[in-house]
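input
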Amino acid sequence: MRTIAILNNKGGVGKTTSTVNIAAAMQILGKRVLVIDIDHQAQATYHFGLSAGDVKFTIFEALKGEVSFDDAKIDRNGIDILPSKNDLKDLDFLPFPAKEFLLKEVMEKVKGYDYVLIDCPPSLGILTLNALTYASEIIVPLQLEFLPFHGMYNLFEGVQMVKQRLNKGIEVTGIIGTMYNAAKSINREVLSETDERLPGKLYQTLVRENVALQEAPSWGKTIFEYKSDSNGAVDYMNLTKEIVAQG
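output
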């Protein structure tokens, strides 16, 4: 079971879009997938078309020990979701010791999945630390512009601290180039610099700018459900095949 945190400390770079559509592509490829939405903004939950009325329990109740994993999970067309709501932000204020390990405790006996994908908040707060304490891998969606590129190094510094103190085995196993437009020189320059500074980390498949990827969440659909012949669907399927091929 590969446990992958999808993380960037900058918002708007395609993190949730990547989590949802990689999960959907994995399911199409015959893999059993769990998505954990550990972002209090609950964007992955909404992207899958789950509203507050569809969700009885969330990851927040599971982290607090009030319900089990099985109570909180939702089967959404063959992909299991551990959903979120806005109240997840209150985890910071709960007087629990060693809060970084709550997710790991919830997931301790969970088996049977090929992949667990965790959609993280755009920060290195307590929610993200829970994801990084549990996960074995990190995949970083990177919008191919200079500010997100330089901000990625702050993320890597944080990951090194996690490795030292909480999870020695965690590694960054890939970087996804998102919102790519070959006509933009800035995209080409950042792509080249990323490959030069972090050789072997950048996936060959780049996720191109695609209107359908922006529209799909408003319909509560994955890109494969919304427009299966779009560039977005082609790119996320090819990207997912690369991720699966990593083992």
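quick obs: DSSP finds eleven helices and seven strands in the chain.
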